[in-house]
Design brief:
It is built from 3 helices and no strands. The protein is mainly α and 55 residues long. It has a domain of 37 residues: Arc Repressor Mutant (Orthogonal Bundle), CATH 1.10.1220. Helix 2 packs across helix 3.
Length: 55
Amino acid sequence: EVCKEQGIEPRRHYLGKFNLRIPPELHEKLAMAAEAQGKSLNTFAQEALQRSLKA
C-alpha cells in the first residue's frame, strides 16, 4: 500500500527458478557440454548465464 500511495512499483520477489523453452537440439548440446565438463546441466547453465552478464 505504501508503494501504491507513493506511485512506485513494489520490488518483485524472485524464487530463483524460471522455465526456459529451448529447442531439443540445443538441450542435447548443452547436456553433452555439461557432461564433458563433469557438471550438471543446471550448474553449466548458471555459469553460462553469469558469463553472459559479464560480457
